[in-house]
Amino acid sequence: MPELEHALVELGRGIELPPAPDLAAAVRRRIAEEPRRRFRLPPRRVLALAVAVLLVAVGAVLAVPPARTAILDWLGLSGVKIVRVEKLPPTPLRTDLGLGREVTLAEAKRRAPWVVVPTGKGVGAPDHVYYSTRIPRGQVALLWGSPAEVRLLMTEFNGEAFIEKLIGPDTTAESVRVNGDPGVWISGPHVFYYRDANGRMRQETDRLSQSALIWRHDYLTLRLEGDLSKHDALRLAASARR
Amino acid sequence: MVSRPLAETELVERARRGDEGAYEELVRTHQGIAFRTAYLVTGSAAEAEDAAQEGFVKAFRALGRFRPGAPFRPWLLRIVANEARNRRRSAGRRAALALRAAEEGSSGGAAPSPEGALLAGEEREQLLAAVNGLREEERLVIACRFFLELSEEETAAALGVRRGTVKSRTSRALARLRGELGEAYA
Fold it and tell me: Which residues of A fall within a CB distance of 8 Å from B23?
């Protein structure tokens, strides 16, 4: 090593830096507290997973056992996890829908060229369009009605965003297909989590409705909520076009 | 030393499977360099500690995306340094980190190393002043490469730049130091 570089290394060994704190205990405490990701499921959950695989394989309606907590990792729907709990956690009251910035549909398409819009009979163009970067590659929300009185809301995000649904004891989750793409129809109250652009899990209620349809198309994860029957939700979802 | 990469691969693999004890060992191994890297970026010990802690937590959550067998340290330092840069940006503070030499005799009166004898006090002061006089991006690259003794790859990860940029910045900084210090290091 030439002399200058050598001198710098030596100088560095005598540089005053604050002593490094011991982080191990704090990090361990935090990772033990935070929600586990799918790839780190502890063994006791493997059985529940195996059950879920079986159910998906036969394409059956998910007959959730009345166990205290059953974990159904929706394997056909990567990035979406359905968790049944005995009691839903309290959800913060929101004063806004938290959908991001209002934009025109044209601007949303410019920012998110992947966005799809339902074209089914009677639905018409969305009344409001929002774009948010809270989710890693952006989220677009199409809203019919008004922010104060939402009739229908469709949210779309691109890529491997990770979302989680907690469903209560009276809620059913059912495997469905939207134009052949895997999806799930949730009927009843549920709580929605998503991973934001900073990697934090955030909680959001499904403040609109008792029901939601979630499905994947190519690299998109889509969610349709509103006062809809399963039949109408599936019909609208199937009509979505770029 | 020879067995260390193997042991680390094993620890990472266990941590990936959710073994928190294995991850704790990885934290212990790398917390010193993670903290020092964050300190260089933030210029504050408190923020460096927060950034390092947050970085370790995020890295644990992101282990599913870690390529098995890849070196762990550069991957970790990228996450920690990112966290540190975000903190510095949100603090809106200009980097005012001036590096200081440790007080003479702070090593508890231990005999100077043979190398230590090569760099006399006055030269040390001059060299440090010259490093502190560099533009921030050059000072950081010198600090990463020579003070923390990070590899080019790790420096690139810590500074959030390409490896080629690390090379060119390093040689520019060294040239500037040579110019500043004159004959001594020509």
Answer: 27-28, 31
Residue of chain A with shortest Cα separation from B118: A7
* Cα A168 → chain centroid: 17
Q: How many Cα neighbours within 13 Å face the side chain of A239?
A: 16
- Can you give the pLDDT at residue A153? 84
Residue A142's DSSP bridge partners are: A129, A154
Strands A163-167 and A172-178: unpaired
Distance from CA of A144 to the nearest CA of B (A): 36
Interface test with A, best of B14, B106, B147 (most A CBs within 10 A): B147
pLDDT, tens digit, 9 for 90 and up, residues B160-178: 899 999 999 999 999 999 9
Query: CA of A16: how far to CAs of A11, A12, A22, B37, B93, in Å?
Result: 10, 8, 18, 14, 21
Q: What is the pLDDT of residue A192?
A: 58
**Farthest CA pair distance, chain B:** 56
Q: In B98-148, which ranges are continuous DSSP H helix?
A: 114-118, 121-132, 136-142
Does residue A100 contact residue A139 with C-beta atoms inside 8 Å? yes
Count contacts between A and B (CB, < 8 Å).
121
> Is residue B74 within 8 Å of residue B154, measured between CB atoms?
yes
On the question of pLDDT at B86 being above 70, the answer is: yes
Tens digits of residue pLDDT in A23-76 = 998 898 888 876 544 333 343 343 344 333 333 332 223 333 332 223 333 333
In angstroms, what separates the C-alpha of B109 from chain A's closest C-alpha? 14
A39 vs B contacts (CB less than 8 Å): 16, 63-64
> What is the ipTM, given to two decimal places?
0.81
Nearest to A21 by CA among B158, B56, B81, B21: B56
Shortest Cα–Cα distance, A14 to chain B (Å): 6
Query: Distances from the Cα of A81 to the Cαs of A2, A52, A87, A221, B48, in angstroms?
Result: 56, 11, 17, 12, 35
